[in-house]
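Review form for a predicted model. The reviewer records the input and the model, then writes brief findings.
Reviewer: anonymous (R2)
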Amino acid sequence: MKYRQFSLIFTGLVILFLLTGCSPWIVTDQGSTDQWITINSGNSIGQTFVAEFSGLQAVHLLLKPQVPGTGILTMHLRSDPSSLTDLATVKISLPEINSQRSYRFDFPQITQSNNQYYYAFLNIDGEGSVDVGSGPADVYQNGAAYQNHEPVEAQLTFSLEYDREALFVEIVRQLAQWLMICLVSILLFTIPGWALMSLVWRSWKELSGFEKLPLSIGVSLAFYILFVLVTYLIGLQLGRWYSWIPVIIGLIVIVWRNRHNFSINKSIGDSPRDGAKEKDNKHSFWPDLGLIIILGLIFLARFWAMRGLDQPMWNDSLHHTEITQLILDHQGLFSSWLPYAAYKTFSMHYGFPLGAALLAWITRVSSGQAVLYFGQVLCIFAPLALYPLTVRLTHGNRIAGVVAVLAAGLLSSMPAYYINWGRYAQLAGQVILPVAMWMVWEVVDSTSGEQASSGWLELPWAKIIITGGIIAGMVLCEFRMIFVIATFVIALAIGQLIKYIRVNSRLWLREVWSLGLVGFTSIVLFLPWGLRLRHSNLINLSDFNSQINSIINLVRLDYITWQNIRFYVPIGLIFLGVSGLIWAIIKRDWAVASLGLWVAGMAVLYSLTLLHIPWVQYVQSFAVLISLYIPMGLFVGYLVSNLTEWLSKWKPGNAVVFSAVIVFGLAGALSQRNISHPDSYAFVTRPDSLAMSWINAQTPENSRFLIEGIHENWVTNVIGTDAGWWIPLLANRENTIPPQYALANETPVDQGYSLGVVNLQATLEEKGVTSQDGIKLLCDYGITHVYIGQKQGAVGNPSKPLFTPAELATNGVFRLVYHIDRVYIYSVENACSQ
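Model under review:
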């Protein structure tokens, strides 16, 4: 009956789509209007744009009559501004334009228009003129307005219309592609961990499939990180075999260990526990179905948010993409950042870029696409990772696990919002973190449980070693995770002390001893990479030379961030989470209550800079706030577990809970579908991608580009502020600002290179690029070209850019060699010969 109901619902949705299938789908790409541009028989007005879907069949433009006439207004659609071939033409007589409104220029649909770049322009044959609405230049990022086929600083007011059937077919195809990426990722990051856990974890068979899945993902990710490190240390670079060998071996292990389950002679009635299994399956049907639906909604929301992005967004994404490309280039780990940056050491965490490279090796996508895909896959894995931990904390309540996944995945803005920041290193660590916490609890229970031995050396060594390895892999995803897990272990130890203080303190000492061994194991496994930090500035940056008053001011400014907690976690989720914590304290459930102490411990870490404790300054309040979805999800799941125990006594109670989960899930997915903000956070737009291809084809290999940039955080740190920052990776040419990870932490090939980068930026900010001192500096640094991206130095920089097209155009040293949309490339000529 259940399946029939769902099939009826699905059929109804299909019928609804068919009934509305004839109506077009109209998307307002640029709706702002602050001025009007007049078109007559002597000029043309145009706009470049990127179509979001397949089935493009009309362009809507805001027009109003200006001078009456009998002329004909023609819209031409071309592939780009340099093309002379019309893909379509549409004519409207000027008398038809009799009022201010949006006018439709329709043409035969272009089936494969999805994500394609186009140029549409208007001209008039005959008498009369028309005004065309336009908005500011920065309100649309994938094109620009044109007058007489030359770009201008404006955007026309326009909408695009798509055939609904073609659009639907394209969306289904896109969903199939995304689903394939997810399935490949699941196989890649599940099989090795599943095989390993089935070999060494005694209680593995007692877990449900949905508990095993996220545990396997966390173990697999950590295993790959350590596996690649070991092979690198012994001089092996396996390339794409890093992806295949663990999967192949894992499949062999899984099939071998389950070979008896495939016996054709085994009947269902052979097992004496069949009745119990049937009862358990019946009891878990609704929670399992709910989890599948919630995961499906998370999948749709995450991948929909990345549509149309040419490259991953914000500062961190450049570093991740460059490291991913270097791993692909070197067939494994590496030491030198060349040819993309002039640095000879690599000591940063590499877990996330390695995962992106593993995905790229199998799917053959580019490094940028791999970072985008893997980042969104991890955004699905991260809330799922809460499921086994929540089920464990609630003593097997699966609906509590579903609610925790719902809260973290669809009701919290984090980690979904990470797509805007490229905060993927911390996200990779957070995928492993709940798994590591689950394992730490397992070690504690195995040490002090009823079956535990009383000998100090008779401990669950397999669990201790595996847990230590998981923690080491997690830290190699993001170094600050060592503080996160250490704070959790301390909070757990305090919670266990409260539990045992009046019962058996000896058991507590055994647990602390086991936890110490876990920590020792993780340090030993991390040490081979940790020794590389001797060549990194990370250790130097952990030294405090500031006066105590300065440090106090830094701490005060950092904690002001907590005023914005509702941006990171919705107020309703905070209320429910705090209620769950209070309820755990009332019930004296010290395991759950210790999580509250863990959150408090993470929150105070940054203040320990006052005591000059090294590295704690990396655990800023921002890093804690964006990870609060983890404890809040656990607390909400715990609270709901107690509620479901009460509702289970009511016959329709399970149906009510299931319905509520689905309703909240749908609402959350709808609210997150547009959570990405490329207008604010994207560096690389379609016009920039086109410019990168031009640079690669039309400029000498020894070209060096001056790019837009700004100082950030401290005076020795410089970042790019538009797509020019991506030139080495996308166009194979040198620029003036290296990746932030390299500049801040690594050793340059030439000793004074990093200082030169900072001095160049500081001097140009002070003197100006077009000044005599500025031009001399360009000569001294070997600058051959200047790049201004589509965002024109405005990404993360609301103040005045380093230079503007207007400034460069008035100086004869700079010759314009490329100008499409809002992208400018200047050649620096005759500057050094004067």
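Findings: The CA atoms of residues 358 and 728 lie 22 Å apart.
Further findings: Residues 1-21, 264-279 have pLDDT under 50 and may be disordered.
Recommendation: see findings above.
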